[in-house]
Structure formats: structure tokens, C-alpha cells
Design brief:
The complex is a heterodimer of chains A (417) and B (162). In chain A, helix 1 packs parallel to helix 7. Chain A has 417 residues and is an alpha/beta fold. The longest helix of chain A has 15 residues. Chain B has a two-stranded antiparallel sheet with strand order 1-8. Chain B is globular. Classes of the chains: A alpha/beta (417), B alpha+beta (162). Chains A and B meet through helix 1, helix 7, strand 22 and helix 8 of A and strand 2, strand 3, helix 3 and helix 4 of B.
């Protein structure tokens, strides 16, 4: 009996810990094309900002592999999986056979179809190596263009302004963080970006990247030119299914898994950004590319690989994104839709914003800016599908808590667990 | 490392019927985590930057109660933590945040079902929560100093869900 995990990030670590909850003995092999000890990818923006050193980016302690009887094969790409022979073929020709396999290859950056995107000094912003490459050119007073004002684009902007770089961020939408933000939220964030002297160009896109071998600027669809020393692409990510394309493994956008993280091939599991698992809010399979979900899917997969019968069907999108001096958290539904009531509370004086999405008697999503202190209570109301009808009018209170819930429900929630 | 079936040895619960909302638990919690350790006078007179209380007191007069980290068996904050700073200690069962590695991203706040993790901006941005007065090695200050015994410690029953 041996376990093989392809991937070395959050879902992989979750799987190791899940396996070890059940099986203390049988060996685990971790294969990753990155040469690093397991590290936290979101920390790359903190690394670039100079707030975290590489030594402090590890996601689990230095003894993690040893303590869990894991053999890490790092810096070597898995090239091919032979599902019939049950072995993973590495780029150096080695063959690693498995009894149970987890595919946790994460996501990869989407390259926007822009002319000149292959030029030098055009970077992705996903991995540590990306941050290290950007670090070399992101000197004080240099000029950067960030393409895409989404979560990772804005984290790049934040890191760059903290390095003293002049940043222009460009997005085709009419607001930043378009998936989660409305006009109000976007304008609060824009004010913050303005305070830090980051330029934001909305409702326009990059036609062409200028320069011979290296990027020296961008030409926008509206004819404007923005000169720059380097470019960061943040046009989103997609499931990294390269390794299993064209095999008998069932793939849609990601690898399709059931609520036990099993794929259509026996003994083969998938978890994390590469997987397309059950989305509790959407009530169908979707990608859910966030860390809490990656960990839980990984842990569930690990436990089941080791013989348990665990179900994880509570995955949904949730994000916390501090942006400069703003605290921003959101979870679940993030856009109006059929059968959904939206409630907003904007307090200009306090610079706080709250937005709740309600479907029937349930809270199904929220967005909070600055007043985020007990956000997890809302997350739990969503997760447990609690009937909120008796206290719905209290949701937006600044001091919202268990005290405004019916006594029986309060007892159930805070006297258990 | 054996991480299975670790439960917090005990948990702190509140009796809302006897809590009088005096917030002494908060005061003593602040003092217990200040450098003057349990010395109320020094803590409040000498410290310009006092620690945050790690207990949340909810109040809607006449009702009130205190709430603190449950050191969950399946801690949402640990699973959500993006840096690995928030961990359940296999020896004690306590969920402890390594403030050296915490970057204050607030993902734990987004995940905690009890809403008992605070944003601490006192020094470096970090998540702050109850540590069961681990460092003092004494009975948790909130429980010890509640004048009405509205906070009590319960030994937890192990959940064998495997």
C-alpha cells in the first residue's frame, strides 16, 4: 500500500494530514515540479512587498515530510500517468507506482490573447518564482502595468506600491474586483488605491504590448499608450489539467470529483484548484479555487484514500482580501440573481459597507468591507443553511452576534463544538 | 505526528442566565496577556498599548454572555489559514496562532463559526484569540475572575467519528 500525491501545495498537505488521521504507517510520495518545501502561494505578494522572507513562507514546518513519513520528489515534473499500470512517469524517466493517487496540480495562469504577451518583462503572478522574477525589475520609481483588477491583480498592485513602484492597473470592466464588488465597494477600493497613488484604468483593455524584445509599454484599445518597465498579468487562472488531458480521466473545466473526491477512475482522487467538486451554494460541480476549500478537499481525499468514508459537500467560494488599509471579506453568492434579495448598508462616515444575499430563508452570501469582525458567524449561517427569518432584520447590526438569535438556536450553536 | 482524535482537554462555556455583563472577564484577560501578567493596576496605568481582550462579550441588555475560542476538534480557522500559522497543538489540543508567521490576512476571521478571532493592530497585524492562558499555566483568567461564576470549564468528551 502506498500513496502518491502530485502537487505540493494546500490540497496536498491537507491530503497528507487526512491520510495520517487514518493510516500512520504506509508511505506517501509527493511529486512537484517546484523545487521548494511546501509554501503558501498567496504569500508571494507579501514576499514581493518585503513583508515576508522566503524562509518564512513555508506552509508547514521544516520537519513536515519526515514527521509524516513522506518522500518528497521536488523540482521534477510528472509527465504522464499510466492509469492501467498504476504508475506516474516522471520527466527524468522514473516510474512511481501507486496504490492510491491524488492529483492536486492546482491552477495555472490564463494568458490573455494580447499581441506581444511573450515579450520579456511580462510576468505571471502565481508562484514564488514569479515573485522572484518581478522582484528583480520592480525597483523604486520603476513603472509597472498590471493587467486585471481582480484579487491577484490587486495583491500585485498592493505589493508594488509598497515597493515604491508606479503602478497602473487596467481592467475591461467598469469596476475593480468585478466578480465580488458593486459600484459602492469598487469606489471605496478606488479611493484607497488613489491614496497610495496607484492609477486605475477601467473599461478599457490592452490591445498590444509595445517594445522589441522587452516590454516598454502598452497600447490600449482607446489608443492611449502607457509606458512601463514591466507588466504583470492577472487575467485569472484555470484548472491545471495539462497532465491528464486526453486520458480517460473525466474532465470538464477541472477534474470531475464526487463528494468523496473520487474521480471516474478507481483509486484516483483529485482535490484543490484542479478539481471540479460539489459547490454547496451553486448546487452543482464547479471549480472552487480558494485555500480553505483546497485544504478540506485534500483532507477528505486523504482520509478516503486511507479507507475512510468521508463526505465533503460544503465547498463554496470565500475570500478575505486585505487591500492596503481596507479589510474585505466575502463568501458565497456575490452577484444578484433570480430569487435572491440583496440588502446593503453603506456607512460613509465609518467607511464601512455590508452586503447580504438572501435566498428564501437562508443567507447565501455576503460582502463586508472594514467591519468584518465576526464574519465567520455569517459564513456559518450559510454553511449550516440556518433559517434566518426570525432575525434577518438584525443581520446588519454593528454588534451582530449570537445574542440576536433565538435562544434555542443560540444554545445549539455556541454550546456545541 | 498523530493528529487524529485530538480534542481540547477542556472548553470554556458561559451561562447567560447568570452573566451580569460586568466585563471583568475582558479586564482580566487583558491583564493576563500583558507584560505585567495579572496586575490590573500596572496593566491599565502603565501600558499605553494594552493587549486586546481574547474573549468576546455579547450584550443586549439585560442579556449578556462571554464567548471565546472553542479550540475545535475540526478547526475551521486552521484549515482556512493561508500561511500555516494557525495550528492545533497535538499535545495540548489547543488551537494556537503563531504570531511570527501570521500576516493578518483575516481568513481565519472569515472562517471561524464563533466570531471569536480579532484583528490585532497593536504591533504587527495579527489575528488574536483565546489561548486558554497557556503561557501563565494557570486557570484561564476569565473563568477564575468571573464574580458570578458565569464562565465555567467543561472537560470535553472525545468525539470518535472515525
Amino acid at each position: 500500500m502506498n500513496y502518491v500525491i502530485i502537487g505540493n501545495s494546500v490540497a496536498a498537505v491537507g491530503a497528507v494530514e487526512g491520510i495520517r488521521k487514518i493510516d500512520k504507517v504506509n508511505p506517501i510520495v509527493i511529486i512537484s515540479d517546484e523545487p521548494y518545501h511546501t509554501y503558501s502561494r498567496p504569500l508571494i505578494s507579501y514576499y514581493l512587498a518585503g513583508k515576508v522572507t522566503q524562509d518564512n513562507m513555508y506552509y508547514r514546518g521544516k520537519d513536515f515530510y519526515k514527521a509524516n513519513n513522506v518522500e518528497p520528489i521536488l523540482g521534477v515534473k510528472a509527465q504522464h500517468i499510466d492509469f492501467d499500470k498504476k504508475e506516474v512517469v516522471l520527466e527524468d524517466g522514473r516510474k512511481i507506482s501507486y496504490t492510491k493517487l491524488l492529483i492536486a496540480t492546482g491552477s495555472k495562469p490564463l494568458t490573455p490573447p494580447i499581441e506581444g504577451v511573450e515579450k520579456q518583462n511580462v510576468f505571471n503572478f502565481i508562484k514564488l518564482d514569479d515573485a522572484k522574477a518581478i522582484e528583480k525589475v520592480a525597483t523604486r520609481d520603476s513603472k509597472a502595468v498590471v493587467i486585471g483588477a481582480s484579487f491577484s491583480g490587486l495583491k500585485a498592485v498592493e505589493a508594488l506600491v509598497q515597493r515604491g513602484v508606479n503602478v497602473t492597473v487596467i481592467d475591461i470592466m467598469d469596476r475593480i474586483m468585478p466578480r465580488v464588488f458593486d459600484e459602492t465597494a469598487s469606489s471605496m477600493a478606488l479611493k484607497m488605491l488613489e491614496k497610495y497613488e496607484a492609477k486605475v484604468l477601467l473599461k478599457t483593455s490592452v490591445e498590444k504590448i509595445l517594445g522589441h524584445q522587452a516590454a516598454i509599454g502598452v497600447l490600449l484599445k482607446d489608443g492611449r499608450e502607457v509606458p512601463c518597465d514591466f507588466i504583470v498579468l492577472a487575467a485569472g487562472v484555470r484548472c491545471n489539467t495539462d497532465l491528464v488531458k486526453g486520458t480517460k480521466l473525466k474532465i470538464n473545466r477541472g477534474i470531475i470529483v464526487d463528494t468523496m473526491m473520487r474521480t471516474n477512475i478507481p483509486d484516483v482522487y483529485a482535490a484543490g484548484d484542479v478539481a471540479e467538486g460539489y459547490n454547496f451554494i451553486e448546487e452543482r460541480n464547479t471549480e472552487i479555487p480558494i485555500i480553505p476549500n483546497a485544504y478540506k478537499q485534500g483532507e477528505t481525499a486523504g482520509q478516503n484514500m486511507a479507507g475512510a468514508q468521508k463526505i465533503f459537500d460544503k465547498g463554496f467560494i470565500m475570500n478575505s482580501m486585505p487591500l492596503l488599509d481596507l479589510s474585505i471579506v466575502s463568501a458565497g453568492v456575490s452577484a444578484p440573481g433570480e430569487g435572491i434579495t440583496v440588502k446593503t448598508i453603506y456607512n460613509q462616515e465609518k467607511n464601512t459597507y455590508k452586503k447580504f444575499y438572501i435566498r428564501g430563508n437562508n443567507l447565501v452570501g455576503y460582502l463586508l468591507i472594514n467591519d468584518i469582525d465576526r464574519a465567520g458567524i455569517y459564513t456559518d449561517l450559510i454553511r449550516r443553511k440556518i433559517d434566518i427569518s426570525s432575525f434577518e432584520h438584525q443581520l446588519g447590526r454593528d454588534d451582530f452576534g449570537f445574542i440576536y438569535l433565538p435562544k434555542a438556536l443560540r444554545s445549539q450553536l455556541i454550546l456545541e463544538g | 505526528m498523530d493528529k487524529s482524535n485530538i480534542t481540547a482537554p477542556k472548553r470554556i462555556y458561559a451561562k447567560e442566565d447568570v452573566c451580569i455583563g460586568c466585563r471583568l472577564c475582558e479586564i482580566h484577560c487583558i491583564a493576563a496577556h500583558s507584560k505585567y501578567r495579572h496586575d490590573l493596576i500596572k496593566t491599565f496605568k502603565k501600558l499605553p498599548k494594552r493587549p486586546l481582550p481574547r474573549i468576546v462579550v455579547e450584550e443586549d441588555v439585560p442579556l449578556s454572555f462571554g464567548l471565546q475560542c472553542r479550540h475545535c476538534d475540526e478547526p475551521e480557522c486552521v484549515k482556512a489559514c493561508i500561511t500555516g500559522a494557525m495550528q492545533k497543538d497535538p499535545k495540548t489540543g489547543l488551537v494556537i496562532n503563531d504570531t511570527e508567521r501570521c500576516i493578518g490576512c483575516w481568513t481565519c476571521i472569515l472562517a471561524c463559526p464563533y466570531g471569536v478571532i480579532r484583528r490585532d493592530y497593536t504591533n504587527k497585524k495579527v489575528a488574536s484569540k483565546c489561548d486558554f492562558c497557556l503561557e501563565s499555566g494557570l486557570e484561564p483568567a476569565c473563568v477564575k475572575n468571573c464574580p458570578n461564576e458565569a464562565l465555567y470549564i467543561k472537560n470535553t468528551v472525545k468525539s470518535h467519528d472515525l
